[in-house]
Amino acid sequence: MICIPLPISRGALHEMEEDGFKVLERIRKVPSPRQVPSTISIGISENVGSVKDVSSRARAALDIALGRGGDQVCIMDGESNASSAVIRLVLRRIRARVRARVVSQAIHELMIDSDKILIMGHQREDYDALGGIIGVTSIARALGKDVRIALSKETSAIDKMVNVLNESEFWKENIITAEAARVWVDANTLTIVCDTHRQEMVAAPEALEISERRIVIDHHRRAADFVENPLLTYLEPTASSTSELVTELVQYAGGGVKLSKAEATGIYAGIVLDTKNFVQQTGARTFEAAAFLAPCRERISKRLNNCLLKPSILSNCVLKWYLKLVELKGLLFP
Question: What angle do CA 111, 215, 250 make, to 5 degrees?
Answer without folding.
Answer: 60
